[in-house]
Amino acid sequence: MAATKEQREFTWDELRKHNTAEDAYLAVRGKVYDVTGWMDKHPGGREVLTLNAGRDATQLFEAYHPLTVTAVLSKYEIGTLKSSEHPTFPPISPFYRTLKERVEKHFRDTHTRANESFYLMGVSFAIVAVLAAAHYYSMVLAENHFVVSLLLASVVGVCMALTCLIPVHEASHAAFQGRFPIVSRFFGAFLDYVNGCSYYMWLHQHFLGHHPYTNLSDVDPDVHTNDTDFRRIKSDQTLMSHYSLQKFYAPLVYGLLAVKFRISDVQMMVFSKTNGKIALNPPDTWHTVVFWTGKAFYFTYKFLLPMYLLNVSFLSAFILSFWADLISSWYLTFVFQVNHVVAPAVWPTVNKDTRVVDMDWAEMQVSSTIDYAHDSKLATFFSGALNYQVTHHLFPYISQAYYPEIAPIIRQVCKEFNKPYIVLPTFYDAFCAHLHYLGVMGNNTTYQASTPHVPNA
After folding, report:
1. Against a cut of 0.90, is the pTM above it?
2. Cβ–Cβ under 8 Å, residues 221 and 275
3. Which of 25, 51, 52, 47 is nearest to 36 (CA)?
4. pLDDT value at 436 more than 60
5. Residue 337 in contact with residue 330, Cβ under 8 Å?
Protein backbone atom coordinates (compact mmCIF):
# COMPACT_ATOMS: atom_id res chain seq x y z
CA MET A 1 0.00 0.00 0.00
CA ALA A 2 1.32 3.43 -0.87
CA ALA A 3 2.25 5.58 2.08
CA THR A 4 -0.41 8.14 3.01
CA LYS A 5 0.39 11.75 3.76
CA GLU A 6 0.24 11.01 7.46
CA GLN A 7 2.73 8.14 7.16
CA ARG A 8 5.25 9.82 4.93
CA GLU A 9 8.97 9.98 5.60
CA PHE A 10 10.80 13.18 4.61
CA THR A 11 14.41 13.91 3.88
CA TRP A 12 15.55 17.38 4.88
CA ASP A 13 15.75 18.54 1.27
CA GLU A 14 12.17 17.37 0.68
CA LEU A 15 11.11 19.31 3.78
CA ARG A 16 12.85 22.44 2.42
CA LYS A 17 10.43 22.55 -0.53
CA HIS A 18 7.51 23.35 1.79
CA ASN A 19 8.76 26.78 2.82
CA THR A 20 5.95 29.26 2.13
CA ALA A 21 2.86 30.43 3.99
CA GLU A 22 0.71 28.58 1.46
CA ASP A 23 2.65 25.33 1.90
CA ALA A 24 4.32 25.26 5.30
CA TYR A 25 5.85 22.12 6.79
CA LEU A 26 8.27 22.13 9.71
CA ALA A 27 9.93 19.50 11.88
CA VAL A 28 10.21 19.24 15.65
CA ARG A 29 12.09 16.36 17.30
CA GLY A 30 12.04 14.24 14.16
CA LYS A 31 8.34 14.65 13.42
CA VAL A 32 7.03 16.66 10.48
CA TYR A 33 4.00 18.93 10.77
CA ASP A 34 1.89 20.67 8.15
CA VAL A 35 1.17 24.02 9.82
CA THR A 36 -0.36 25.70 6.77
CA GLY A 37 -3.80 25.63 8.37
CA TRP A 38 -2.41 26.98 11.65
CA MET A 39 -0.98 30.16 10.11
CA ASP A 40 -3.83 32.48 10.99
CA LYS A 41 -4.48 30.82 14.35
CA HIS A 42 -0.92 30.94 15.67
CA PRO A 43 -0.76 33.33 18.67
CA GLY A 44 2.69 34.50 17.58
CA GLY A 45 1.51 35.38 14.09
CA ARG A 46 2.19 34.05 10.60
CA GLU A 47 5.74 35.36 10.25
CA VAL A 48 7.33 33.05 12.81
CA LEU A 49 5.80 30.00 11.13
CA THR A 50 6.67 31.23 7.65
CA LEU A 51 10.30 31.78 8.62
CA ASN A 52 10.51 28.28 10.08
CA ALA A 53 8.69 26.62 7.19
CA GLY A 54 10.80 23.99 5.48
CA ARG A 55 13.16 23.65 8.46
CA ASP A 56 13.85 21.68 11.59
CA ALA A 57 12.38 24.15 14.09
CA THR A 58 13.05 22.09 17.22
CA GLN A 59 15.26 24.52 19.12
CA LEU A 60 13.15 27.60 18.43
CA PHE A 61 9.91 25.75 19.14
CA GLU A 62 11.17 24.56 22.52
CA ALA A 63 12.71 27.93 23.39
CA TYR A 64 9.59 29.95 22.60
CA HIS A 65 6.88 27.64 23.97
CA PRO A 66 5.96 26.13 27.33
CA LEU A 67 6.70 22.43 27.50
CA THR A 68 2.96 21.65 27.53
CA VAL A 69 2.05 22.86 24.02
CA THR A 70 3.09 19.69 22.17
CA ALA A 71 -0.48 18.42 22.37
CA VAL A 72 -1.61 21.23 20.05
CA LEU A 73 1.22 20.53 17.63
CA SER A 74 0.36 16.83 17.40
CA LYS A 75 -2.87 17.64 15.53
CA TYR A 76 -0.80 18.68 12.52
CA GLU A 77 1.60 15.70 12.38
CA ILE A 78 1.99 14.21 8.89
CA GLY A 79 5.19 12.18 9.03
CA THR A 80 8.77 11.83 10.21
CA LEU A 81 12.10 13.40 9.27
CA LYS A 82 14.69 10.78 8.38
CA SER A 83 17.65 13.09 7.74
CA SER A 84 18.81 16.44 9.04
CA GLU A 85 20.29 19.46 7.28
CA HIS A 86 21.97 20.76 10.44
CA PRO A 87 23.19 19.17 13.69
CA THR A 88 20.54 18.10 16.17
CA PHE A 89 20.48 18.11 19.97
CA PRO A 90 19.84 15.57 22.73
CA PRO A 91 16.36 15.58 24.31
CA ILE A 92 15.45 18.30 26.79
CA SER A 93 17.47 17.73 29.95
CA PRO A 94 16.34 18.09 33.57
CA PHE A 95 18.53 21.21 33.65
CA TYR A 96 16.62 22.88 30.81
CA ARG A 97 13.27 21.70 32.10
CA THR A 98 13.99 23.18 35.53
CA LEU A 99 15.09 26.48 33.98
CA LYS A 100 11.89 26.79 31.99
CA GLU A 101 9.65 25.82 34.89
CA ARG A 102 11.17 28.34 37.29
CA VAL A 103 11.30 31.24 34.88
CA GLU A 104 7.73 30.63 33.71
CA LYS A 105 6.65 30.46 37.35
CA HIS A 106 8.33 33.81 38.02
CA PHE A 107 6.19 35.54 35.40
CA ARG A 108 3.04 33.81 36.60
CA ASP A 109 3.74 34.87 40.18
CA THR A 110 4.49 38.48 39.22
CA HIS A 111 1.54 38.68 36.79
CA THR A 112 3.87 40.03 34.11
CA ARG A 113 3.83 39.45 30.35
CA ALA A 114 7.35 38.32 29.53
CA ASN A 115 7.21 39.52 25.92
CA GLU A 116 5.87 43.01 26.46
CA SER A 117 7.57 46.31 27.29
CA PHE A 118 5.87 49.62 26.60
CA TYR A 119 8.81 51.36 28.29
CA LEU A 120 11.23 50.08 25.65
CA MET A 121 8.83 51.09 22.89
CA GLY A 122 9.01 54.66 24.20
CA VAL A 123 12.79 54.43 24.44
CA SER A 124 12.92 53.28 20.81
CA PHE A 125 11.02 56.31 19.55
CA ALA A 126 13.26 58.56 21.66
CA ILE A 127 16.40 57.02 20.13
CA VAL A 128 15.13 57.63 16.60
CA ALA A 129 14.14 61.21 17.49
CA VAL A 130 17.63 61.95 18.83
CA LEU A 131 19.15 60.33 15.75
CA ALA A 132 17.02 62.46 13.42
CA ALA A 133 17.90 65.69 15.25
CA ALA A 134 21.63 64.86 15.39
CA HIS A 135 21.67 63.92 11.71
CA TYR A 136 19.87 67.10 10.68
CA TYR A 137 22.15 69.45 12.61
CA SER A 138 25.29 67.58 11.60
CA MET A 139 24.37 68.31 7.98
CA VAL A 140 23.29 71.91 8.64
CA LEU A 141 26.65 72.66 10.26
CA ALA A 142 28.72 70.53 7.87
CA GLU A 143 30.15 73.29 5.70
CA ASN A 144 31.03 75.79 8.45
CA HIS A 145 31.52 73.78 11.66
CA PHE A 146 32.76 70.40 10.50
CA VAL A 147 34.23 69.30 13.84
CA VAL A 148 30.88 69.88 15.53
CA SER A 149 29.24 67.97 12.68
CA LEU A 150 31.58 65.03 13.29
CA LEU A 151 30.62 65.01 16.97
CA LEU A 152 26.95 65.02 16.01
CA ALA A 153 27.61 62.24 13.49
CA SER A 154 29.07 60.25 16.37
CA VAL A 155 25.75 60.67 18.18
CA VAL A 156 24.03 59.43 15.02
CA GLY A 157 26.28 56.35 15.05
CA VAL A 158 25.49 55.59 18.69
CA CYS A 159 21.77 55.93 17.99
CA MET A 160 22.05 53.67 14.94
CA ALA A 161 23.65 51.03 17.16
CA LEU A 162 21.00 51.46 19.87
CA THR A 163 18.31 51.12 17.21
CA CYS A 164 19.73 47.68 16.45
CA LEU A 165 20.14 46.70 20.10
CA ILE A 166 16.72 47.77 21.36
CA PRO A 167 13.82 48.05 18.88
CA VAL A 168 15.21 45.81 16.13
CA HIS A 169 16.57 43.14 18.45
CA GLU A 170 13.39 43.06 20.52
CA ALA A 171 11.30 42.86 17.36
CA SER A 172 13.33 39.99 15.92
CA HIS A 173 12.38 37.90 18.95
CA ALA A 174 8.76 39.12 19.22
CA ALA A 175 9.73 40.46 22.65
CA PHE A 176 8.09 43.89 22.35
CA GLN A 177 4.46 42.95 22.09
CA GLY A 178 3.84 39.24 21.60
CA ARG A 179 0.07 39.64 21.34
CA PHE A 180 0.30 41.87 18.26
CA PRO A 181 2.87 40.53 15.76
CA ILE A 182 2.50 43.60 13.52
CA VAL A 183 4.40 45.52 16.22
CA SER A 184 7.46 43.38 15.53
CA ARG A 185 7.26 44.12 11.82
CA PHE A 186 6.95 47.84 12.49
CA PHE A 187 9.96 48.09 14.80
CA GLY A 188 11.96 45.59 12.76
CA ALA A 189 11.66 47.89 9.75
CA PHE A 190 13.70 50.47 11.69
CA LEU A 191 16.75 48.48 10.63
CA ASP A 192 15.95 49.02 6.94
CA TYR A 193 14.95 52.66 7.11
CA VAL A 194 17.34 53.93 9.79
CA ASN A 195 20.42 51.80 9.14
CA GLY A 196 19.92 50.74 5.51
CA CYS A 197 20.34 47.07 6.44
CA SER A 198 17.73 44.37 5.89
CA TYR A 199 15.59 43.18 8.79
CA TYR A 200 14.58 40.14 6.75
CA MET A 201 18.21 39.09 6.30
CA TRP A 202 18.82 39.79 9.99
CA LEU A 203 15.99 37.38 10.91
CA HIS A 204 17.71 34.63 8.93
CA GLN A 205 21.10 35.36 10.43
CA HIS A 206 20.09 35.95 14.02
CA PHE A 207 16.73 34.33 14.73
CA LEU A 208 17.10 31.27 12.46
CA GLY A 209 20.89 30.86 12.54
CA HIS A 210 22.70 32.25 15.53
CA HIS A 211 20.19 31.45 18.28
CA PRO A 212 19.42 27.81 17.44
CA TYR A 213 23.07 26.98 16.65
CA THR A 214 25.15 29.28 18.84
CA ASN A 215 28.91 28.87 18.22
CA LEU A 216 28.39 25.74 16.11
CA SER A 217 31.14 26.63 13.68
CA ASP A 218 29.60 25.07 10.56
CA VAL A 219 26.13 26.58 11.01
CA ASP A 220 26.06 29.76 13.11
CA PRO A 221 26.25 32.68 10.61
CA ASP A 222 27.75 34.93 13.28
CA VAL A 223 30.93 32.85 13.35
CA HIS A 224 30.94 31.74 9.73
CA THR A 225 34.44 31.88 8.25
CA ASN A 226 36.22 30.76 5.14
CA ASP A 227 39.48 28.87 5.50
CA THR A 228 41.24 32.08 4.44
CA ASP A 229 39.49 34.87 6.28
CA PHE A 230 40.34 38.29 7.68
CA ARG A 231 40.60 36.71 11.14
CA ARG A 232 41.06 33.27 12.67
CA ILE A 233 38.63 32.41 15.48
CA LYS A 234 38.28 28.63 15.09
CA SER A 235 40.89 25.92 15.46
CA ASP A 236 39.94 24.27 12.14
CA GLN A 237 41.00 27.37 10.19
CA THR A 238 44.47 27.20 8.65
CA LEU A 239 46.94 29.32 10.60
CA MET A 240 48.37 32.01 8.30
CA SER A 241 51.03 34.62 8.93
CA HIS A 242 48.74 37.66 8.87
CA TYR A 243 46.66 36.26 11.74
CA SER A 244 49.52 36.99 14.13
CA LEU A 245 48.49 40.66 13.99
CA GLN A 246 44.73 40.15 14.06
CA LYS A 247 44.28 41.39 17.61
CA PHE A 248 45.43 44.78 16.30
CA TYR A 249 43.78 45.03 12.89
CA ALA A 250 40.56 43.02 13.35
CA PRO A 251 38.94 45.58 15.69
CA LEU A 252 39.59 48.25 13.06
CA VAL A 253 38.02 46.12 10.33
CA TYR A 254 34.93 45.68 12.51
CA GLY A 255 34.09 49.28 11.60
CA LEU A 256 33.03 48.09 8.13
CA LEU A 257 30.21 45.90 9.50
CA ALA A 258 27.37 48.13 8.27
CA VAL A 259 28.83 48.44 4.77
CA LYS A 260 29.35 44.68 4.65
CA PHE A 261 25.75 44.04 5.67
CA ARG A 262 24.28 46.37 3.05
CA ILE A 263 26.27 44.68 0.29
CA SER A 264 25.59 41.14 1.50
CA ASP A 265 21.88 41.95 1.84
CA VAL A 266 21.57 42.45 -1.91
CA GLN A 267 23.86 39.53 -2.70
CA MET A 268 21.73 37.17 -0.59
CA MET A 269 18.36 38.57 -1.70
CA VAL A 270 19.12 38.53 -5.42
CA PHE A 271 21.78 35.87 -5.94
CA SER A 272 22.74 33.30 -3.29
CA LYS A 273 19.38 32.99 -1.46
CA THR A 274 21.28 31.84 1.60
CA ASN A 275 23.06 33.28 4.64
CA GLY A 276 25.96 30.91 5.14
CA LYS A 277 24.29 27.55 5.81
CA ILE A 278 20.89 29.12 6.52
CA ALA A 279 18.69 29.04 3.41
CA LEU A 280 16.45 32.04 2.77
CA ASN A 281 12.73 31.47 2.57
CA PRO A 282 10.94 33.48 -0.13
CA PRO A 283 10.06 36.92 1.31
CA ASP A 284 6.45 38.03 1.30
CA THR A 285 5.29 41.33 -0.18
CA TRP A 286 5.87 43.27 3.07
CA HIS A 287 9.49 42.20 3.40
CA THR A 288 10.19 42.71 -0.31
CA VAL A 289 8.81 46.25 -0.23
CA VAL A 290 10.60 47.12 3.03
CA PHE A 291 13.87 45.68 1.69
CA TRP A 292 14.02 47.89 -1.42
CA THR A 293 12.31 51.01 -0.07
CA GLY A 294 14.54 50.81 3.01
CA LYS A 295 17.65 50.98 0.84
CA ALA A 296 16.19 53.88 -1.13
CA PHE A 297 15.09 55.79 2.00
CA TYR A 298 18.50 55.34 3.65
CA PHE A 299 20.32 56.72 0.60
CA THR A 300 17.81 59.57 0.36
CA TYR A 301 18.05 60.78 3.95
CA LYS A 302 21.81 60.28 4.17
CA PHE A 303 22.76 61.90 0.85
CA LEU A 304 20.04 63.28 -1.43
CA LEU A 305 18.13 65.41 1.11
CA PRO A 306 21.27 67.01 2.63
CA MET A 307 22.70 67.73 -0.82
CA TYR A 308 19.58 69.18 -2.44
CA LEU A 309 17.77 70.77 0.51
CA LEU A 310 20.69 71.87 2.71
CA ASN A 311 23.34 72.44 0.01
CA VAL A 312 25.76 70.00 1.65
CA SER A 313 28.50 68.74 -0.65
CA PHE A 314 28.56 65.06 -1.48
CA LEU A 315 32.01 64.76 0.12
CA SER A 316 30.80 66.21 3.43
CA ALA A 317 27.68 64.03 3.43
CA PHE A 318 29.79 60.97 2.63
CA ILE A 319 32.36 61.63 5.36
CA LEU A 320 29.71 62.25 8.01
CA SER A 321 27.68 59.20 7.00
CA PHE A 322 30.75 57.00 6.85
CA TRP A 323 31.88 58.23 10.27
CA ALA A 324 28.45 57.42 11.74
CA ASP A 325 28.75 53.97 10.12
CA LEU A 326 32.15 53.42 11.72
CA ILE A 327 30.85 54.39 15.17
CA SER A 328 27.75 52.20 14.93
CA SER A 329 29.71 49.25 13.51
CA TRP A 330 32.43 49.36 16.16
CA TYR A 331 29.81 49.75 18.85
CA LEU A 332 27.74 46.77 17.68
CA THR A 333 30.61 44.47 16.84
CA PHE A 334 32.34 44.95 20.16
CA VAL A 335 29.06 44.30 21.99
CA PHE A 336 28.40 41.15 19.95
CA GLN A 337 31.91 39.69 19.96
CA VAL A 338 32.60 39.84 23.69
CA ASN A 339 29.73 37.44 24.46
CA HIS A 340 30.81 34.51 22.28
CA VAL A 341 34.24 34.99 20.69
CA VAL A 342 36.20 34.86 23.93
CA ALA A 343 38.26 32.19 25.65
CA PRO A 344 35.75 31.29 28.40
CA ALA A 345 33.03 30.57 25.81
CA VAL A 346 32.91 26.97 24.57
CA TRP A 347 32.67 25.91 20.93
CA PRO A 348 30.38 22.84 20.96
CA THR A 349 31.34 19.79 18.95
CA VAL A 350 29.18 17.52 16.82
CA ASN A 351 29.39 13.74 16.65
CA LYS A 352 30.52 12.98 13.10
CA ASP A 353 28.46 9.78 12.90
CA THR A 354 25.19 10.82 14.53
CA ARG A 355 25.34 14.58 13.80
CA VAL A 356 24.21 15.19 17.39
CA VAL A 357 25.72 18.04 19.42
CA ASP A 358 27.75 16.95 22.43
CA MET A 359 25.50 18.74 24.92
CA ASP A 360 21.89 19.69 25.57
CA TRP A 361 20.76 22.92 23.86
CA ALA A 362 20.38 24.84 27.13
CA GLU A 363 23.80 23.72 28.33
CA MET A 364 25.24 24.86 25.00
CA GLN A 365 23.74 28.32 25.49
CA VAL A 366 25.22 28.65 28.97
CA SER A 367 28.60 27.23 27.97
CA SER A 368 29.05 29.20 24.75
CA THR A 369 28.12 32.58 26.23
CA ILE A 370 29.56 34.96 28.81
CA ASP A 371 27.95 37.84 30.68
CA TYR A 372 29.50 40.96 32.17
CA ALA A 373 28.72 43.98 34.37
CA HIS A 374 25.52 42.72 35.97
CA ASP A 375 25.70 45.51 38.52
CA SER A 376 25.80 48.31 35.95
CA LYS A 377 22.53 49.84 34.73
CA LEU A 378 24.48 51.83 32.16
CA ALA A 379 26.01 48.66 30.72
CA THR A 380 22.55 47.10 30.63
CA PHE A 381 21.04 50.01 28.72
CA PHE A 382 23.88 50.69 26.29
CA SER A 383 24.35 47.00 25.46
CA GLY A 384 20.65 46.40 24.94
CA ALA A 385 20.89 44.12 28.00
CA LEU A 386 23.34 41.85 26.20
CA ASN A 387 25.46 41.98 29.32
CA TYR A 388 22.81 39.37 30.30
CA GLN A 389 23.44 37.37 27.15
CA VAL A 390 23.00 33.98 28.84
CA THR A 391 19.50 35.00 29.87
CA HIS A 392 18.74 36.25 26.38
CA HIS A 393 19.92 33.06 24.71
CA LEU A 394 18.00 30.77 27.02
CA PHE A 395 14.81 32.84 26.85
CA PRO A 396 14.91 34.90 23.65
CA TYR A 397 11.19 35.67 23.71
CA ILE A 398 11.48 37.57 27.00
CA SER A 399 11.90 41.33 26.77
CA GLN A 400 15.31 42.63 27.78
CA ALA A 401 13.53 44.79 30.35
CA TYR A 402 13.23 41.69 32.57
CA TYR A 403 16.70 40.15 32.24
CA PRO A 404 18.00 41.52 35.57
CA GLU A 405 14.98 39.93 37.29
CA ILE A 406 15.44 36.42 35.97
CA ALA A 407 19.24 36.19 35.74
CA PRO A 408 19.49 35.24 39.46
CA ILE A 409 17.03 32.40 38.84
CA ILE A 410 19.19 31.08 36.00
CA ARG A 411 22.38 31.39 38.03
CA GLN A 412 20.79 29.43 40.88
CA VAL A 413 19.69 26.62 38.57
CA CYS A 414 23.16 26.54 36.99
CA LYS A 415 24.65 26.22 40.45
CA GLU A 416 22.30 23.36 41.35
CA PHE A 417 23.16 21.45 38.17
CA ASN A 418 26.86 22.33 38.24
CA LYS A 419 26.75 24.23 34.95
CA PRO A 420 29.09 27.14 34.15
CA TYR A 421 27.78 30.68 34.34
CA ILE A 422 30.54 33.19 33.66
CA VAL A 423 30.02 36.85 34.54
CA LEU A 424 32.97 39.17 34.03
CA PRO A 425 33.10 42.31 36.20
CA THR A 426 32.98 44.93 33.42
CA PHE A 427 32.65 45.36 29.68
CA TYR A 428 36.33 46.26 29.64
CA ASP A 429 37.17 42.82 31.05
CA ALA A 430 35.04 41.18 28.37
CA PHE A 431 36.65 43.29 25.65
CA CYS A 432 40.13 42.35 26.89
CA ALA A 433 39.10 38.68 26.87
CA HIS A 434 38.10 39.04 23.21
CA LEU A 435 41.41 40.68 22.28
CA HIS A 436 43.31 37.99 24.18
CA TYR A 437 41.40 35.32 22.26
CA LEU A 438 42.24 36.95 18.93
CA GLY A 439 45.89 37.10 19.96
CA VAL A 440 46.10 33.45 20.94
CA MET A 441 44.13 32.16 17.93
CA GLY A 442 46.32 34.23 15.63
CA ASN A 443 49.51 32.58 16.85
CA ASN A 444 48.63 29.07 17.98
CA THR A 445 47.48 26.05 15.95
CA THR A 446 46.39 23.86 18.85
CA TYR A 447 44.66 26.28 21.23
CA GLN A 448 41.13 25.17 22.08
CA ALA A 449 38.45 27.84 22.32
CA SER A 450 36.99 26.17 25.42
CA THR A 451 40.15 26.81 27.46
CA PRO A 452 39.13 29.23 30.20
CA HIS A 453 41.14 32.40 30.38
CA VAL A 454 40.10 35.77 31.73
CA PRO A 455 42.92 38.31 31.53
CA ASN A 456 43.70 40.54 34.45
CA ALA A 457 42.49 43.93 33.32
Report:
1. yes
2. yes
3. 25
4. yes
5. no
Task: Give 236-291 pLDDT, tens digit per residue.
Answer: 899 999 999 999 999 999 999 999 999 999 999 999 999 999 999 999 999 999 99
State the distance between the two ends of the chain, measured CA to CA, in whole angstroms. Answer: 70
Q: Could you tell me the CA-to-CA distances from 130 to 109, 136, 144, 300, 378 in Å, in that order? A: 37, 10, 22, 19, 18
175 Cβ contact partners less than 8 Å away, ≥ 6 residues apart: 115, 117, 396, 397, 398, 399, 400
- Helix H or strand E segment including 432: helix 427-441
d(CA 454, CA 457): 9
Percent of the chain residues past pLDDT 90, beyond the cut: 88
DSSP 341: S
Q: To 10 degrees, what angle do helices 314-340 and 427-441 make?
A: 90
Separation between Cα atoms, residue 4 and residue 239, nearest integer Å: 52
Alpha-carbon distances, residue 188 vs 23, 92, 193, 198, 204 (angstroms): 25, 31, 10, 9, 13
Average pLDDT of the residues of the chain: 93
The pLDDT of residue 123 is: 97
Q: What is the pLDDT of residue 449?
A: 46
Helices (H) and strands (E) in the chain, counts: 21, 9
CA angle at 47 for the pair 159 and 210, rounded to the nearest 5°:
60
